[in-house]
């Protein structure tokens, strides 16, 4: 499928995907919607409609007096559409709060798990399967502990079910009679696991008490608590909304006016209270005019789209920054109220307000198109076509498609406004020419535009000026067909560059006139465009220094741009993935941009030329803003390096071999002890034996024995040589202290099969501490800190069994007829030191009370 494009002019239009004719009981659905719209209840109708992530199921929640759930399904196979299928038959006549769609990993026949959450805290789980005639009930469960609780809103966040419930005053914390009607809610969570039989729930945990009625909205690993403007009467509550990370129990207080206001951590022993949470913000809240949230939509990665009562479409970023995207025309929301819908599709924001759809580029806030609608619509995202805006309306499901306009319909110069386009383009031609001819010139004298214009040394302006004249003046060249074809090709090739240049000049003019509120948005857009431009081609050292200065001057904007350009996303398992093309990663991972003495520099983080390569620059930004992403980013970079065959990249003529990526990532870490854990993770992510051993020795130095054994067990399977080196290192530690005694059974299982008893004993004797050698290697001391044969006995017995089985392989050869004749028996000479396992075994049986007796 074609992705949505905003780089060239396109005509956007709505096309019908289905008129509900391929849905079960489609005529009944259309009649119901027609009646609802006729009663002027489109607002309530749209708010009660739920569409499954794959767009195949439409659910309509019916409220009092007739409670229930209308279900309409679209089947993939046409022959099943004509069969009769079971509908959802609810077992209780209670109001439905919301529906939850669960992901089932091993689903057959496109199975879908649907959770129906009731107001009284009950929940039902249903499964849809085409082969089994539609919907079937799996289980019924209680979500709340209290039978008197009432659920107001619910959502899924990772492996948590999170909801806002109303509790009777006697069951909640004490509140005054004045606030009892507004602050009788609390936020709860409980874990869940999905298996073949259904869902298993964990225990209920209340994380916030005495809060107002909130709508819980999940996006990435963050849950937003938004005030319900339809039912909430307390206007002071609407001045703030909360965000909460369920994994770490960190709460943030936000304002729709100025972004983040406060951060608080919750602990297991002390749960947060809403009033205490916002106590520090009361003085500030009394000075601002509240903005209502008219619409919202989660866009993933901890960010959420907000439509404010001021008319601004904003993005609340995961770091708490409120970024303004687009301003609706004045009085637009005043006439339509809260009858709107907003959603994001790749880099395009679709917004319906009343009977008008707006398409906005989220990167720069430019309005792409306005599409008139015949009625109100509900925007939704189809998981199979996330790039295209899709809308539910009374007449059916619609999709926004794009069609390119003809080149002659609107001349390119018609889109250049507020900028002296001719002067900008002419100067751009000569500046580019100066740079080009300066590289080809043997003279060190700096070329200028005036020098190029004289003496006929530069012929390009003749052609380019002609192209620009046609581009701006809309003139048509009267040339032959062949020349006209060539001219059109040149114009087509330069069209995007000319547009980008004019757009850049336009943005520069806007930055000069912008207020402080809009300046951050302009800077973020400009940094992202510059990063994308620099990474689209080979980077020379001049551009690399420019890129380094950009990261130094705009660190936050650069970090946001890195995530957008590389399309970094964190999945549910905690690992990073990217959708950026391989060519972009080749530029990121290539070390040829830096000066050769950078890699030979002995000072960490101090390159000789003052410019970090792109990969080190990105690692430095990640370490500053999201340090726990650095090992994941290294793993992702190594995967991209292997898939793109980047392991053969070289430094160029200066260096014949490139450094491993893990060493390049380690170079950005400061020389501090608090980064040792991160350094260990980077070493382990490399999967290289030397790096693994270095990480293991660092863990041993820190005394993290549990982590030491985990690493040993994991990487001993990687290769026999690494297994032997890990085992001998840990056996040396066992010889010196007793910290590894709780893990001896695990360590003995890691023993390589080529180890011998003699080798083990010699290694132990070599690594015994000096104090133990003075008193005897295997004698028991009073404190129990010395190694005894009792500690080693299971290991020695295991190794002796291996050697016995190995010697039995040749038993048949020893029993065969002797040829040549056997050698005469030699006299046994007693040795001063026992060196064989057989002598050890004989002495252990015959001598009692010796040092080899186990303790």
Automatic annotation (TrEMBL):
InterPro entries xref list: BLOC-2_complex_Hps6_subunit (IPR017218), HPS6_C (IPR046822), HPS6_N (IPR046823)
GO annotation (BP), single: lysosome localization
Pfam (any one): HPS6_C
Domain BLOC-2 complex member HPS6 N-terminal residues, every copy: 12-400
Annotated BLOC-2 complex member HPS6 C-terminal domain residues: 427-826
Signal peptide: none
GO cellular component term of the entry, any: BLOC-2 complex
PANTHER family with a match to the protein in the record: BLOC-2 COMPLEX MEMBER HPS6, HERMANSKY-PUDLAK SYNDROME 6 PROTEIN
Name used for this protein in its record: Hermansky-Pudlak syndrome 6 protein homolog
């Amino acid at each position: 499928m074609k992705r949505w494009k905003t780089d060239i002019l396109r005509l956007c239009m709505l096309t019908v995907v289905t008129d509900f004719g391929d849905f079960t009981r489609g005529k009944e659905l259309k009649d119901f919607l027609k009646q609802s719209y006729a009663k002027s209840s489109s607002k309530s109708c749209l708010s009660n409609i739920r569409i499954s992530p794959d767009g195949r199921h439409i659910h309509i929640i019916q409220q009092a007096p007739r409670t229930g759930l209308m279900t309409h399904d679209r089947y993939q196979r046409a022959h099943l559409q004509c069969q009769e299928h079971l509908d959802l038959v609810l077992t209780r006549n209670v109001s439905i709060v919301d529906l939850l769609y669960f992901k089932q990993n091993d689903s057959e026949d496109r199975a879908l798990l649907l959770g129906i959450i009731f107001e009284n805290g009950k929940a039902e789980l249903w499964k849809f399967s085409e082969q089994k005639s539609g919907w079937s009930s799996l289980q019924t469960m209680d979500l709340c502990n209290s039978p008197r609780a009432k659920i107001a809103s619910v959502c899924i966040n990772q492996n948590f079910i999170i909801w806002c419930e109303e509790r009777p005053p006697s069951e909640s914390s004490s509140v005054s009679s004045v606030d009892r009607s507004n602050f009788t809610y609390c936020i709860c969570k409980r874990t869940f696991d999905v298996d073949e039989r259904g869902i298993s729930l964990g225990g209920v945990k209340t994380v916030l008490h005495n809060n107002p009625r909130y709508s819980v909205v999940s996006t990435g690993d963050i849950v937003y608590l938004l005030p319900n403007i339809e039912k909430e009467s307390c206007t002071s509550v609407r001045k703030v909304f909360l965000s909460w990370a369920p994994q770490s129990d960190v709460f943030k207080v936000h304002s729709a006016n100025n972004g983040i206001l406060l951060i608080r951590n919750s602990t297991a022993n002390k749960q947060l209270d809403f009033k205490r949470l916002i106590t520090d913000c009361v003085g500030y809240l009394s000075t601002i005019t509240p903005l209502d949230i008219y619409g919202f939509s989660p866009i993933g990665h901890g960010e959420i789209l907000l439509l404010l009562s001021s008319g601004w479409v904003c993005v609340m970023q995961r770091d708490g920054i409120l970024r303004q995207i687009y301003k609706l025309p004045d009085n637009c929301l005043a006439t339509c109220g809260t009858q709107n819908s907003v959603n994001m599709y790749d880099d395009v924001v679709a917004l319906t307000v009343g009977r008008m759809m707006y398409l906005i580029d989220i990167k720069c806030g430019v309005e792409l198109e306005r599409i008139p609608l015949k009625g109100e619509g509900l925007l939704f995202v189809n998981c199979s076509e996330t790039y295209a805006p899709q809308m539910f309306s009374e007449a059916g499901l619609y999709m926004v498609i794009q069609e390119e306009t003809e080149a002659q319909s609107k001349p390119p110069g018609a889109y250049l406004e507020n900028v002296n386009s001719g002067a900008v383009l002419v100067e751009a031609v000569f500046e580019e020419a100066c740079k080009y001819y300066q590289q080809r010139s043997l003279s060190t004298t700096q070329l200028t535009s005036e020098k190029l214009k004289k003496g006929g040394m530069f012929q390009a302006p003749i052609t380019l000026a002609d192209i620009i004249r046609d581009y701006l003046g809309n003139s048509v060249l009267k040339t032959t067909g062949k020349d006209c074809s060539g001219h059109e090709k040149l114009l087509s090739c330069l069209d995007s560059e000319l547009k980008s240049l004019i757009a850049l000049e336009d943005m520069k003019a806007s930055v000069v006139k912008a207020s402080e509120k809009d300046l951050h948005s302009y800077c973020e857009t400009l940094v992202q465009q510059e990063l994308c431009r620099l990474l689209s081609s080979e980077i020379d050292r001049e551009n690399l220094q420019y890129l380094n200065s950009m990261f130094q001057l705009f660190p936050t904007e650069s970090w946001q741009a890195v995530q957008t350009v590389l399309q970094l996303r964190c999945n549910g398992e905690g690992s990073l993935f990217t959708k950026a093309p391989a060519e972009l990663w080749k530029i990121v991972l290539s070390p040829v941009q830096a000066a050769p003495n950078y890699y030979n520099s002995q000072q960490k983080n101090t390159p000789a030329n003052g410019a970090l390569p792109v990969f080190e620059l990105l690692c430095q930004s990640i370490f500053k803003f999201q340090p726990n992403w650095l090992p994941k980013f290294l793993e992702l970079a190594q995967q991209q390096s292997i898939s793109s065959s980047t392991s053969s990249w070289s430094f160029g003529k200066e260096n014949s071999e490139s450094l491993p990526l893990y060493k390049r990532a380690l170079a950005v870490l400061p020389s501090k002890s608090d980064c040792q854990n991160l350094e260990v993770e980077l070493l382990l992510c490399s999967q290289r034996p030397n790096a693994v051993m270095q990480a293991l020795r660092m863990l041993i130095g820190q005394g993290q024995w549990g982590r030491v054994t985990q690493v040993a067990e994991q990487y001993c399977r990687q290769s026999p040589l690494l297994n032997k080196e890990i085992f001998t290192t840990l056996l040396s530690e066992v010889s010196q202290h007793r910290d590894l005694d709780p893990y001896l059974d695990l360590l003995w299982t890691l023993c390589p099969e080529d180890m011998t008893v003699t080798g083990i004993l010699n290694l132990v004797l070599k690594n015994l501490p000096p104090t133990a050698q003075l008193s005897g290697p295997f004698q028991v001391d009073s404190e129990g800190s010395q190694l005894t044969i009792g500690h080693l006995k299971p290991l020695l017995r295991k190794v002796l069994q291996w050697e016995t089985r190995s010697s039995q392989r040749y038993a048949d050869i020893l029993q065969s007829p002797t040829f040549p004749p056997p050698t005469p028996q030699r006299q046994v000479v007693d040795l001063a030191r026992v060196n064989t396992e057989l002598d050890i075994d004989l002495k252990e049986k015959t001598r009692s009370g010796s040092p080899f007796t186990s303790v």
